[in-house]
Amino acid sequence: LHLLVLFIALVSANTCGGNCPSGDCTDCPCGTSTNHLTISQYCKLHTDWSQSCCECIASHESGGNGNAVNHNTNGSDDVGLFQINNVNWGQCSGGSAPCNPSTNTACAHKVWQWGGNTWKLWSTCGVCGCCRSK
User: Fold this and answer.
1) How far apart are CA 89 and CA 68, in angstroms?
2) What does the mean pLDDT of the chain come to?
3) Concatenated DSSP letters of 10-51
């Protein structure tokens, strides 16, 4: 029984309560509760980018879960609605994980600007047809 409880605890920690679907997360920076959001509400915070590209990117990155986390093969972590990589946290969220959806969206806007006002810095830009789009 004790081994079963330990096994369940380890599995839950690795998936972050469903926020880490790959099951290989080393920690849960946005917690273990899902936070399903209306993506369009956050995309509308910025009018200079394509709303349809914004919605597609966020949908493919997080499925609309503002607490989503992904542990990458290079050891970095992506979090939130737009899956902002931890290498960007210092420049857009004071060094902490941008789990708050408004902060995550502001970070996404900065990353979008760093990409020349395009979505090319997201791996999902191709599936959305948005790599060169605003």
Assistant:
1) 15
2) 91
3) HHHHHHGGGT-TTS--S--TT-SS--B--HHHHHTT-SSS-H
| Annotated catalytic residue 55 | no
**Any idea what the Cα angle at residue 26 is, between residues 24 and 19, rounded to 5°?**
65
Of the candidates 24, 55, 77, 78, the residue annotated as catalytic is: 78
Which tokens go with 91?
A: 């420049």
Identified catalytic residue from 24, 27, 61, 77: 61
Question: Model confidence over 80-114: pLDDT tens digits?
Answer: 999 999 999 999 999 999 999 999 999 999 999 99
pTM: 0.89
What band does 7 get if pLDDT is binned at 50, 70 and 90? Answer: very low
